[in-house]
Amino acid sequence: MLASTNGHRQQARRAAYPARYSAFGLLRRGLTHAEWPPAWRGHPLKGSYDVVIVGGGVHGLAAAYYLAANHGITDVAVLDKGYIGSGGSGRNTAILRSNYLTPEGVRFYDRSLQLYRRLAADLDFNVMFSRRGHLTLAHNDSSLRTMRWRAEVNKAEGVDSEVIGPAEIKRLAPFLDVGEGARYPVVGALWHPPGGIIRHDAVVWGYARGADALGVHIHQNTEVTGIDVADGRIRGVRTSRGDIATPIVLNATAGWATLVSDMAGVAMPIQTFPLQAAVTEPVKPFLSTVIVSGTLHVYISQTDRGELVFGASVDPFTSYSMRGSLEFIEGLAGHVLELMPALTKVRVLRQWAGLCDMTPDFSPVMGHTPVEGFLVDTGWGTYGFKAGPVSGEAMAECIATGRTPEIIAAFGLERFAEGVLVGEKGAAAVGH
Amino acid sequence: MILLPCSWCGPRDASEFAYVGEVVSRPDPATVTAPQWRRYLYVRANPCDWTTETWYHRMGCRRYLKVERHTETNEVRAVHAGREAG
User: Fold this and answer.
1) ipTM attached to this prediction
2) How close is the nearest chain A Cα to the Cα of B86, in Å?
3) Containing domain of residue B43, as a range?
4) Using the beta-carbon criterion (under 8 Å), do B21 and A317 form an inter-chain contact?
5) Residue B86 placed within a domain
6) Nearest CA-CA partner of A272 in A330, A328, A322
7) Number of domains comprising chain B
8) Chain B contact for A149 (CB, 8 A cutoff)
């Protein structure tokens, strides 16, 4: 280190890269005031790469990491027009679960949950996964019927999931109003013990650090302005920092999925809607599960810091605007108080919006496209974050082998022309 | 949320309206191929730019409006009575 950057005294010895994170390392550096090396580095933009990944969120960075770690492909650039994790990866409500409705969906999201469970060890980075269980409330008979259906599909796929009654719900979440006098009485819930929450920024940083250590170049503040296609093949990418020649481009953007695909001339069945979320002031820990109500369009969890994180369904019209609205927070507060009347005095600290690429069947669009060398990992609607690891793993295999892995075979772009949709609306419309 | 200046009712909150979006013309069922029909069902333009789209004043005059809106800023430039052909 040549210059002190944060007030620590100057170090003569260059820190080893990448630093191995451990309790001992923390103690040693705490005592010696040694600088930590950066978790990932900046690089000049090269004129060509074997693979260019557009979008530096959890999907793009995971794909880059697994390309390098599983397949030895390290000449990879990850481009982001802002900073990494500044899109959907940093705006979601960080809920993980795999209790979906279709067998294809359950298998896919369960693989992601398995990868998340050992991610901290794989990446040597604390991603703070808290497996606290996930409750999806039913307020009427038809919701309960869908939950029984989901529970049976889940069990058949080996995923821990069952329908429970109000007494059991009250035991898991004592602050929840499960009385019969409620405007929307709770008649049951889908209980999914493997679900939980995670620190979404740490997942992004962990993958970035892992990918960078294996030789991947991460280029922030690098906006893709065009994609060159000739004779039905990808030739290169034009960016705000210069042109890159490449045979393979992966579109791993959320919110801008159609705009990037349009550059390659690939039409996508996607429309972009904002989804708003909010967080309250921190309070003492009282909520040990994730609570979701599809009827009331709300999901609630408590972070390790004590803040309550609320999310909702998407706004009622398409937009690329990420401004919050008063109408949203008013409706959300009313719904939260229906469920937990004790929260009347809790104040909301901030609200924000992220962009959701909604598909007609609430399933993603992944894999090869009619343009050779142009792959997509898009259409992530309101459920993209929890699928980050499995998507990265599958897209890396797709790029390295040229074949579509079985686990994402159902999610191809061609399904919309063939009419073979994967209907996940019953499990993904609001239930995060 | 945004205000939409309805041609009949004046400026009203967007929550009074139903968003219809891009109106695409329905192909002739007698001659259309299955992939063309599914494209009509599923594929819509999704620009980050000025758009001309249809809204329905559900809780007002219950008429259709043609609205020019920028999808990044939600600024509304013009509102016309009627709906797009389709």
Assistant:
1) 0.93
2) 19
3) 3-81
4) yes
5) no
6) A322
7) 1
8) no
